[in-house]
Design a protein that fits this description.
This protein is α+β, with helices and mostly antiparallel strands. Helix content is 35%, strand content 35%. The protein has 2 helices and 7 strands; from the N terminus they run ααβββββββ. A 4-stranded mixed β-sheet has the order 2-4-7-3. Helix 1 runs antiparallel to helix 2 (27-42). The radius of gyration is 15 Å and the shape is globular. It starts with a helix and ends with a strand.
Length: 104
């Protein structure tokens, strides 16, 4: 049986590959990553990329690096280093990894 730590490492690598594929406009690799993500989801693993979502200090699912100078303006997640990962256990959703994000 695979451990949650190993699962998170594999998902983080897949997330990184997918980001590179998007940057390089490689749709074949993007589709492959999406298929892998779907396989995980079929097994109860939810991989959430919060890019574009609003961020505030009360958010507990992400650890943020804030690069904005003006903290009075609304903060938005502009990049995801590690996605948020949930796993279904006993009918409940449990977070096994906080997202690591860049906020501006």
């Amino acid at each position: 049986m695979i451990t949650e730590a190993t699962l998170a490492k594999v998902i983080n690598q897949m997330h990184d590959i997918n980001k590179r594929a998007k940057r390089e406009k490689n749709s074949a690799i993007e589709r492959s990553c999406e298929r892998i993500k779907n396989v995980f989801e079929e097994d109860g693993v939810i991989i959430h990329d919060p890019t574009g979502e609003k961020y505030d200090m009360s958010r507990t699912d992400c650890e943020a690096n804030i690069v904005s100078i003006n903290l009075l303006s609304p903060l938005t997640i502009t990049d995801v280093i590690k996605p948020v990962i949930y796993i279904g256990k006993n009918g409940k959703r449990e977070m096994i990894q906080q997202g690591l994000v860049i906020v501006e």
